[in-house]
Specification:
Length: about 160
């Protein structure tokens, strides 16, 4: 039997933590052909979705899919997001949460790097490969460079969690 990924469990746990503390949970999602979201709100192959109780209806966070109904510009839309495409889940108010590595490349050819979906201390999304650049700001110089090492002396290229206060 194949082992189930920990990702859907972590998503549900962080969603619950956000709501228990009065925060607004958001997910950053890589959009591809299997993702059902209003395309006019997709930017650079990604969309950030408010998944709070107040913003959604019939939210179901399963092991394979996150499904709910939400309003965009006053019109209700049924959204379906593969758990595999979730880049991060975080609290809007303080940016605390967790980013995930998404290995597959978007089917429209606009891939997302493995270090995307990270957030600064003030909760703003940070562009892939950049240090303190908001998500909608272009940073062509740093986007093609490999991530900087953490300075801990290790030479492995495996991603590591970094504790941020």
């Amino acid at each position: 039997m194949q082992e189930i990924s920990t990702k859907p469990y972590l998503l549900r746990a962080l969603y619950e933590w956000c709501t228990d503390n009065g925060y607004t949970p958001h997910i950053a999602v890589r959009v591809d052909n299997s993702t059902r979201v209003p395309r006019q709100f997709v930017r650079d192959g990604e969309i950030v979705l408010n998944i709070s109780f107040e913003a959604t209806s019939q939210l179901q966070m399963g092991n394979e899919w996150i499904e709910f109904t939400a309003r965009f510009s006053g019109k209700a839309h049924k959204l379906e997001v593969p758990v595999a495409n979730v880049l991060a889940i975080y609290a809007r108010e303080n940016g605390q949460g967790m980013a995930f590595q998404v290995d597959a490349v978007a089917q429209d050819g606009e891939g997302v790097g493995p270090d995307s979906g990270t957030f600064s201390e003030d909760g703003e999304e940070v562009a892939a490969g950049a240090s303190d650049v908001p998500a909608n700001t272009e940073s062509p110089d740093s986007a093609d460079e490999p991530p900087e090492p953490d300075g801990d002396g290790s030479k492995g290229s495996r991603p590591r969690l970094k504790i941020v206060k």
